[in-house]
Amino acid sequence: MKIFTMMFGILLAVCGFSCIFTPIMTFLETGWFLMILLFVYGIMGIIKAVTQKEYKIQFLFSIISVILGAVILFVPGLRLMTDGMLIYLMAGWFLLQGIVDIFLSFRQKKRGEGKGWIWTMILGILGLLVGIYSFVHPLFAAFTIGILVGIYFIESGINMVVIAQYIQEET
After folding, report:
1. Cα separation, 78 vs 76, whole angstroms
2. How many CB atoms lie within 10 A of CB 42?
3. What residues contact residue 99 under an 8 Å CB cut-off, 6+ apart?
4. Rounded to an integer, what distance in angstroms lies between the CA atom of residue 142 and that of residue 134?
5. Whole-number Cα distances in Å, 169 to 3, 7, 11, 143
6. Residue-level pLDDT, tens digit, the chain, 171 residues
């Protein structure tokens, strides 16, 4: 198990570098990941609801997730449309995060929490600008998503290699 975990971590880190060097291709494949996540989330939710005999709103969302995941998989062009929506969701997230950071910086300044509010303000303004720029130039957001996925894979791969050092092999 130790060697398998280490090999998988190294493979994940290498894939992360591949994602960073090909961010647009990585972005274009995020629709597959979203479809798989929706599908797995839905199936797990259905299993949980059936085993606990709780058929509430989570059960309904689980069924909708399975259906949506299947539709994204089988309807031509819908996966690409999903990728396009991700661009604008990411741009909106940058915009919203920038606005929240700006408000937080004013709150920090009002409370007299030192000079830290300046950094929060700078990051808020940068987030706001990145959000606006992402709406105007959606390719920028696609590029960013691809790089972030690559960084996440590298971090996860390194984490797995480190964790593998602490796995005790049974003899």
Report:
1. 6
2. 20
3. 124, 127, 128
4. 9
5. 10, 15, 21, 41
6. 788 888 988 998 998 899 899 988 888 887 777 788 788 888 888 898 888 888 888 888 889 888 888 887 788 777 777 777 878 887 888 899 889 889 988 988 888 877 788 888 998 899 899 889 888 988 888 888 888 888 888 988 898 888 888 777 654
> What's the 3-state SS for the chain?
CHHHHHHHHHHHHHHHHHHHHCHHHHHHCHHHHHHHHHHHHHHHHHHHHHHHCCCCHHHHHHHHHHHHHHHHHHCCCHHHHHHHHHHHHHHHHHHHHHHHHHHHHHHHHHHCCCCHHHHHHHHHHHHHHHHHHHHHCHHHHHHHHHHHHHHHHHHHHHHHHHHHCCCCCCC
Q: Which residue has the tokens 């007299």?
A: 112
Q: Which two tokens stand for residue 24?
A: 């647009």
Angle at 116 between CA 115 and CA 118, to 5 degrees: 75
